[in-house]
Known about the structure:
The chain is an alpha/beta fold.
Amino acid sequence: MGKALDGVRILDFTHVQSGPTCTQLLAWFGADVIKVERAGAGDITREQLRDLPDADSLYFTMLNGNKRSLTLDTKNPQGKRVLERMIRECDVLVENFAPGALDRMGFSWEHIQSLNPRLIVASVKGFGPGPYEDCKVYENVAQCVGGAASTTGFDDGPPVVSGAQIGDSGTGLHLALGIVTALFQRTHTGRGQKVLAAMQDGVLNLCRVKLRDQQRLERTGVMKEYPQFPNSAFGDAVPRAGNASGGGQPGWILKCKGWETDPNAYIYFIAQAPVWDRICKLIGREEWIDDPHFATPSARLPHLKDIFAEIEHWTMARTKFEAMAVLNRHDIPCGPILSMKEIANDASLRASGTIVEVEHPVRGKYLTVGNPIKLSDSPTEVTRSPMLGEHTDEVLAEFGYSETEIRSLRASGAI
Ligand code: COA
């Protein structure tokens, strides 16, 4: 079966996490992703956080599946000429270098345009235009400057960063959307364009509901679904909301059977208004159905702590999976807190291809997260990440280099 992005050639100058997430997605959709790396070194993550002495790390292998690897020194004069030829024939160049690195390499937007006006040049940067545009940025910096850290955690503790890599992988997702959108526009205009996804902007986009809350707070001085209500004061900025739901239906994390020894014996419980009567019956508080202090969503807001404490008596008598089974039968939204160990062994995630086992020539089998986006006409088969320079000769031959020319490039240190 053909793939959605069959025929799209991508020159992949990405490294670490944000850019590689983006190009791995495009590879899963069928694009030919040629990862360009420096000979001898490659993407720094090949050797970071290694669990096996001489094998590419899981950090690298889990972000670079379905790609080909070409070694090329783009600061070497002959390497530059190779890159120019590739730019002429590719559709997209993706990079997440520190700001200005592409220009310093001699590949300004103007130069790239003169080589191939159809090329889409897509970049992840830490910040968009402004005072910080020249700064290097990593994941947690993005979470801090994008509004996630100040709004995550509990109000009696410091700001907290999330385990979800919203700065890196989140921005990679944004960039991938920008690239396919630019490819679509090119079908009408024939022109490439620059695509920029700044990590601060990507995180802020994912924290949109917190900017909503900032404006609500400024107008009303209070947010009744936040745990600060009704007993503590609000300041002038959105406070950390603990585990409160970000939406209109109150929620909290509640203990389940075994919580004393199992750090993940918890369930997220949503006291959704349409099923309030069922919740009351289930936990044995039927009198709350008609009690004016509990009968309506707004009447319940000052009592959320008491309500969740009462529901917790019920959840603590059950394991998180038992509670989930009963609550789902009553159509009450909830979710067990799953550990990574539980997720790694989840049969349905494996069956759907969201968790995939891949065979690697050096490290053997490893687990990776497959394509979370399923297209019925473009299924994803996850393949292993490439060894450094594994496809150098193959790719150069496809770009018209003879064996003799490839030997000479190697002798010059360009590849
Ligand atoms: N041939 C020759 N030179 C190459 C090369 C190649 N194939 N690939 C990379 N280089 C050079 C670059 O041109 C750059 O040289 P310069 O400093 O002379 O301009 C150099 O390698 C280092 O690249 P850089 O991107 O600056 O790496 P770094 O390790 O110093 O910084 C980051 C890493 C992630 C902080 C930085 O790249 C960054 O801020 N990126 C944008 C934001 C981002 O994506 N952050 C999240 C990462 S998950």
